[in-house]
Design brief:
- There is one protein chain.
- The protein is an alpha+beta fold and 294 residues long.
- It is 42% helix and 26% strand.
- It contains 11 helices and 10 strands.
- Strand 2 and strand 3 form a beta hairpin.
- Helix 3 packs antiparallel against helix 4, helix 6 packs across helix 7 and helix 9 crosses helix 10.
């Protein structure tokens, strides 16, 4: 389902110019508003999702004040020095504008759960609930201007463009650092021994990943990663090596033709056997045998 911001507001003295300019990406909604203001204009705002408010332009001799209570004095919002605010979900804000003729601003709403899944990282709940009101950040403002331009573009670029800019802005405000790659845990010695012995005994047939995972009491995904962390190769490659070891033994100890060796070691035909042998050993079965029996 497409994310839709859930916001309640009560406003006075604002007239939207040209309608709303909106772009909707995966878990993110960006709106650009051009607003004409009466000599006095104001509003009360509260949203169910976290959002960024960026003041892009303001005309008039007056000022805009952002307040945490309806009767408080608040703080002046300046489009050059204090244009950006991060507003947590559920936080109430009041805004008063006096002698301001025109305002353009960008609102960026986001679904914290969707964004966390996309980033494959749990968003810090303390940061999500910590307001950052009326601050300046050159890099964030540059991103906001690019997002706003894309919202206003009559022929928008690929969705990944605006989506990437918006994610970058959220990463900036949440101060998300690069994650160190997780080291995959290895199989316990008993698990590795049990699996490799099973593969050795059954390598001539098709072994399902599910069988190996069951031996270790792990999920298939966990087992696959742990096996590779332990051995450096995937389970199916280990099985292929076991088959080829048996084939090498037969090539040296018997005079059976290559077709018979291929069939007895689980390959569909001689061509399949030769391709696999060359890929893993670096030469053909015939050349390999010749080098060892002469």
């Amino acid at each position: 389902m497409t994310f839709q911001p859930r916001m309640q507001n009560t406003i006075e003295g604002f007239s939207v110019i040209g309608g709303m300019n909106r772009r909707n990406w995966n878990g993110i909604v960006a709106d650009v508003w051009d607003v004409q203001c009466a000599p006095y204009a104001g509003g009360h705002y509260v949203a169910a999702d976290p959002r960024l408010f960026i003041l892009l332009d303001m005309e008039g001799p007056g000022e805009s004040r952002v307040k945490l209570t309806p009767k408080g004095s608040g703080a002046v919002q300046d489009r050059l020095e204090r244009p950006i605010s991060y507003v947590p979900a559920g936080m109430e804000l009041w805004v008063d504008l006096a002698d301001v003729r025109y305002v353009r601003h960008l609102d960026l709403h986001f679904d914290a759960e969707v964004v966390a899944r996309r980033l494959m990282e749990e968003l810090d709940s303390s940061r999500l609930m910590d307001p950052r009101l009326l601050f300046a950040d050159e890099r964030m403002l540059a991103l906001a201007k690019l997002i706003a331009a894309e919202c206003l573009n009559p022929e928008p670029l690929h969705d990944l463009y605006g989506d990437g800019l918006s994610l970058s802005l959220i990463i900036n405000v949440m101060k998300l650092a690069r994650n160190e790659p997780r080291k995959r845990s290895k199989l316990a010695p008993w698990q590795l021994r049990k699996v490799t012995e099973f593969i050795q005994e059954n390598c001539l047939r098709n072994i399902r990943l599910e069988e190996l995972a069951t031996l270790t009491s792990l999920s298939q995904s966990h087992f696959s990663h742990a096996f590779k962390a332990s051995t450096g190769i995937a389970p199916h490659q280990w099985q292929m090596n076991a088959r080829l070891d048996k084939a090498k033994q037969m090539l040296i100890e018997s005079s059976q033709p290559l077709m018979a060796v291929a069939m007895e070691t689980g390959f569909s035909d001689q061509a399949h056997f030769t391709r696999a042998f060359r890929k893993h050993v670096g030469t053909t079965p015939a050349m390999w045998k010749k080098a060892r029996v002469t």
